[in-house]
Specification:
α5 (about 100-115) runs parallel beside α6, α12 packs across α13 (about 260-270) and α12 crosses α18 (about 375-385). This protein has helices at about 5-20, 45-60, 70-75, 90-95, 100-115, 125-140, 150-155, 160-165, 175-185, 195-200, 205-215, 230-250, 260-270, 285-290, 300-310, 320-330, 340-345, 375-385, 390-405, 410-430, and strands spanning about 35-40, 65-70, 80-85, 120-125, 145, 170, 190, 220-225, 255-260, 280, 295-300, 315-320, 365-370. It has about 450 residues and is α/β, with parallel strands linked by helices. The protein has 20 helices and 13 strands. Residues about 1-25, about 350-355 and about 430-450 have low confidence and may be disordered. Helix content is about 50%, strand content about 15%. The chain has two domains: about 5-190 and about 410-430, Glycogen Phosphorylase B (Rossmann fold), CATH 3.40.50; about 205-405, Rossmann fold (3-Layer(aba) Sandwich), CATH 3.40.50. Strands 3-2-1-4-5-6-7 form a seven-stranded parallel β-sheet, with helices on both faces.
Length: about 450
């Protein structure tokens, strides 16, 4: 991840060369009313897009928003053209079955860009579809911002050329991302992760937590994911972990955090078959994490919530043998969990390919990306945290240190500032080149790891 002073010097020269003077620019409120187009396909991306829209409107009330997203973006005032979060899918076979729907949405976006081009297009993760949206916008010279960029540094580094060609500014959520993109001549800034904005503003249901905690029994929270295919692939393993833990610690209780009531109904049907003390709640994820002694989570951005609440956790992701073979070929980082990557000194070590993650050395969160049944290994980790106070405290101490360095709010506000500076310079002059940066810096210097 750290390439030495030569690389750092090169990045500094690039930044200095591209910077322009913004001292003469008008306030954001002087900008004419404008429309921005959002495209967010993941449930978490929908939430991040909504927070960004709110921050944009705080600075420029004349902004209108349209595009593709989900219920959070709609509640924030975006006129949705389609609920893209209903198509939150992974792996090639499932994508092919939805291709006609994706093509219809791309066609709709193309017509919108042709008839009423927006002032900017803001993409949130979901790269397979969003590359098409970026390509349409680029053809019509509409500025493209990637907020919460896809993790191409982990799976598909050859796509960095596509990012350089199609995106005007990458708003990076992880400290090593900006360095990676700028080393490949992509304009990028580190703004922090918007999940921490949401968590910092979240008002927890303390009465709910107190009622469950008053039993004095230890709780283990199961987090089965936000997509149905994740539930189908992983929940049986989580139930088996619960069975093994309960066998050794009968006093343990288990909570399942469902993304929606629809998910909760599906999970309850499966949970009641196992004859264990398991309860399922929807939209209580943060409360159930706070409640727990430890957690078992399907890999994803929920790991950042676990970090924020300093919860020892095991990370699971079950896939099929073919998908396992494919990820072994494409994966270029040691860990799949964001928390482990934040803690690693060599998160993006170039040219390294990693085999199966049987070796947990260096990982704060034991992680299990596998096509085999890892339930016994995961149960061993859970039982260790339930029965060994020192092991639990050691893990919490590591999480607390990591949280103090990275889990700070303000990402959406910084992202809004960068976008509006870009658009303001575009209409006010001088010309804002794709690599230009506003005069202020985010919480962590661009292209540098905070711990460096």
């Amino acid at each position: 991840m750290h390439e030495g002073s030569g690389c750092r010097g090169s990045l500094a020269r690039m930044e200095s060369k591209l910077r322009v003077d913004y001292g003469h620019l008008r306030s954001f409120r002087d900008l004419r009313p404008m429309t921005v187009f959002f495209s967010a396909g993941e449930p978490s991306g929908d939430l991040h897009a909504a927070t960004l829209l709110q921050e944009l409107r705080k600075r420029h009330p004349g902004i209108l928003a349209t595009g593709f997203g989900g219920r959070h973006l709609a509640e924030a005032g975006c006129h949705l053209q389609a609920d893209l979060t209903s198509l939150a899918i992974m792996w090639f076979g499932r994508v092919f079955s939805h291709l006609p729907k994706f093509f219809r949405l791309v066609g709709r976006a193309n017509r919108m860009f042709r008839k009423n081009p927006p002032a900017a297009v803001i993409l949130v993760d979901y790269p397979g579809f969003n590359w098409w949206i970026a390509r349409l916008a680029r053809r019509r010279r509409i500025p493209v911002f990637y907020y919460v960029p896809p993790q191409i540094w982990a799976w598909a580094r050859w796509r960095v050329e596509k990012m350089r060609r199609l995106v005007n500014l990458v708003l990076c959520t992880l400290p090593f991302e900006a360095e990676f993109f700028r080393q490949h001549n992509c304009p990028a800034v580190y703004i922090g992760h918007p999940f921490f904005d949401h968590l910092a503003n979240k008002q927890l249901d303390e009465r709910f937590i107190f009622q469950l905690a008053s039993s004095g029994r230890p709780w283990v929270t199961l987090l089965p994911g936000s997509r149905f295919q994740e539930l189908e692939a992983n929940f049986e393993t989580q139930l088996e972990v619960a069975r093994l833990v309960h066998q050794a610690r009968p006093e343990a209780r288990f909570a399942v955090a469902a993304y929606s009531e629809r998910h909760a109904a599906w999970l309850r049907e499966r949970a009641k078959e196992c004859q264990l003390p398991i309860q399922v709640w929807s939209e209580k994820t943060q409360e159930l994490i706070r409640l727990a002694r430890c957690c078992v989570a399907v890999s994803g951005s929920v790991a950042l919530e676990l970090l924020y609440y300093e919860k020892p956790s095991a990370i699971l992701y079950r896939i099929g043998p073919v998908a396992w073979w494919a990820q072994g070929f494409f994966r270029q980082v040691r860990y799949i969990c964001l928390v482990n990557l934040l803690a690693a000194e060599d998160a993006l070590a170039p040219g390294r390919r990693w085999p199966a993650l049987d070796d947990q050395q260096g990982a704060i969160y034991p992680e299990f990306l596998t096509y085999r049944d890892p339930s016994r290994s995961i149960a061993t980790e859970v039982l260790r945290w339930l029965g060994d106070d020192q092991a639990w405290a050691d893990c919490v101490a590591k999480l607390r240190d990591l949280k103090s360095r990275y889990a700070q709010p303000g990402a959406a506000a910084r992202g809004a500032e960068y976008i509006l500076h870009y658009l303001q310079a575009k209409v006010s002059g001088p010309q804002f080149l794709p690599g230009d940066l506003p005069p202020h810096q985010p919480a962590v210097a661009v292209g540098k790891h905070p711990a460096a």
